[in-house]
Amino acid sequence: MVPNKLAIASISLSQYPGHILDHKIRAAAQAGIAGIEIVYNDLLTYSQTQNIPIHTGAQKIHTLCQETNIQVLSLAPFENYEGSTTPLKERLTLAAHWLEIARLLHAPYLQVPSIFTADCSRDEKIIISDLQQLSDLASSIKPVVSIAYEPLSWGTNCSTWESALSTVQRVDRVNFGLCLDTFHEGTRVWGDNASPTGVQMDAEMKLRDSLRRFVRDCPREKIFYVQLSDAERFETPYSLAHPWALAGEAKEFTWSKHARPFPLEVEFGAYLPVVEIARAWIVEVGFEGWISMEVFDRRMRDGKVIPETAARRAVESWRKVQVEMEV
């Protein structure tokens, strides 16, 4: 078995408002999960239910994580930052707040998904400068927080691991690297929720070539952590008439919000080539860092799936992925 430690995003333990962050952390720890990605809104909800400021909430959650022997991996997701039309000063002020919370949580990473708004800048110099300033802010106070930059398959300027790696290399900061998610690779080069077949034309070739280039070109030290999730094949192919469709929203974003079960949960329609992607990203490059489950399963919204059940599903999913990677 690979030596990687398993984490899970707090939102992937339940999307039901009544399942509060401290409950989720205890459930993850009870299932043997070693780390957790704290979703900012989960922390905010926890703090509000406790009637305490979010800074105090972050301190209390850190203490709980120490007591339950679970490590905070990241604070997530700091969205739509680079190239935004909002004044940079305002964005950096908001970033400073998030970084302060990350340090109170003792989170080594701030997760930053690639920007996905339509009205953002396409100027590469502006994008790189924005990210350099964010990285420098994150390293200006000890402990240093590292920026885990994630290419979203619907990202406006950055939607592949290759474009993200190019950004990482141009930003050129020790504390700026990659957060890679199997969902984004799988839906960018292989799956298609608008196709009756569920797959793109030449999908196998495109995926094989992408993974071959990854193993050849991606520096292992720039992989900060890897997220695993699958995707559910749409019974009715996506169109603007689909009940989940929203005007102006990328079809991959719609897919992501509603139909991302844990890897290999075929009972929930999972069908992406997660094992092939994970084998390349983890085994073939010798990545020994954190693996985190990040799923968005619509079945977790009504409270019927409790965090304990979700945590057990995550552990079983990781066990199955590990077995399949070694085949």
TrEMBL record:
InterPro entries noted in UniProt: IolE/XylAMocC-like, Xyl_isomerase-like_sf, Xyl_isomerase-like_TIM-brl
Highest taxon of source: Eukaryota
Pfam families in alphabetical order: AP_endonuc_2
Signal sequence annotation: none
Stretches assigned to the Xylose isomerase-like TIM barrel domain: 25-320
Name of the molecule in the record: Xylose isomerase-like TIM barrel domain-containing protein
Organism this protein belongs to: Penicillium polonicum
